[in-house]
Amino acid sequence: MLTKKQKMERLVELGIEINQISDLDFMLEKLLSEARHLFSADAGSIYIKTEDKLKFSYSQNHTLQKRLEPGKKLRYTTFSIPIDNNSIAGYVANNGVILNISDAYKIPKSYPVSFNSSFDKMVGYHTKSMLTLPLINSRKQIVGVLQLINAMNDKGEVVKFAKTDEALVQHFALYAANALERTQMTRTTIMRMISMAELRDPKETGPHVNRVASYSVEIFEAYAKKKKMPCKDIDAKRDAFRMAAMLHDVGKVAISDTILKKPGRFTDKEYEIMKTHTIQGAQLFNDAQSKFDEISALVALNHHEKWDGTGYPGHVDVNTGKPLPGYEDKNSKPRGKREDEIPLEGRIVAIADVYDALCSRRVYKEAWTEEHVLETLKKDAGSHFDPELVDIFFDIYDVISSIGKLYPDND
């Protein structure tokens, strides 16, 4: 366990570190991990305030994680609860108070709340001590709720969260609230860009891009760990990569409606125009000012390349769309990139994008069966897709398949 001085020093460091994070999902993971470390919690959750409800947005549980095979992740679903006095998190948000409960199963009847044990029964966990606090920003607005579960002492025993920690937790909560608000603003800005694309192309929806981004990050993280990439580098890349993957098709805003919304098959000429959305998207990130800009350009340009070199746009000058010198094919068109010529980010998003498209219903097709989708990915490994990344996709398929439930389509 950390001393009070160590906790204070870590809080100062954390304030600097979280300013480097831009993505909302990564911020949730970082904040909950740090809170559990600081206050020796076995588990925890973060709820985000959305209008008049709390959305269960992120969760961790060390005990349940230990039951899984190495490299596997816990799956969880999202849900919303009212901000009222009928739940512990709802009460904390509704009243702006901290609740420090020593035993969730022995809450005095004088308390205004009771504990819902359904999750414990479902997964075989035993919640005992709970520390639940509102996340209040610098403008005194509640943006969410942090819930820490089962404080652990040095002997690995569950104990009550220390009363002396409550003041430190409040400092942490202010950091967390302001950080969440900032990353929510970033996510909102990106979603507005997606909404512009959605006005042009109904396939480019918020749930679709969130799923593609989440799949992509999971594949990248598994790949990076397999390659023994340092954790610090993985974290830095994940932050920018998730946002970039959301914008993989942003270049479609430059394509004519007569092509983009055409219900039938494209003519050869229309298809050639449609393919330029990759170049148009990359051009939006010219004069890169950040790692996000750099990765966004790579993703936009390369997510339609194929492992066997038959994809597009190939080796092009992003500014002109012309073939790079020495990379023309026999028809004087850009030669397609192949294998490791395709940046890792493009190879990953290619798998995530096709998987989601096949799983999803569209106005022109029904969703494919899971069996058909997975057979297609296996068949196209080594031609359309990087075979090593397809293997990794299947290694983590339990996590991949659960992501769709977090971002369901709105129909």
Description:
The chain has 411 residues and is an alpha+beta fold. The protein has 2 domains: 4-183, GAF domain (Beta-Lactamase, 2-Layer Sandwich); 201-406, Hypothetical protein af1432 (Orthogonal Bundle), CATH 1.10.3210. 48% of the residues lie in helices and 11% in strands. It is built from 16 helices and 7 strands. Strands 1, 2, 3, 4, 5, 6 and 7 form a 7-stranded antiparallel sheet that branches. A hairpin with a 5-residue loop joins strand 6 and strand 7 (158-159). Helix 2 packs antiparallel against helix 6 and helix 11 packs antiparallel against helix 12 (291-302). The protein is elongated. The N and C termini lie far apart (48 Å). The model has no long low-confidence stretch (mean pLDDT 90).
Helices and strands, with pairings:
Layout: H1 4-17, H2 24-38, E1 41-50, E2 53-61, H3 62-66, E3 80-82, H4 88-95, E4 99-101, H5 118-123, E5 130-136, E6 142-152, E7 158-159, H6 166-200, H7 206-226, H8 231-246, H9 257-260, H10 268-275, H11 277-283, H12 291-302, H13 344-359, H14 370-380, H15 387-395, H16 397-406
Antiparallel strand pairs: 1-2, 1-6, 2-3, 4-5, 5-6, 6-7
Helix pairs in contact: 1-6, 2-6, 7-8, 7-13, 7-16, 8-12, 11-12, 12-13, 13-14
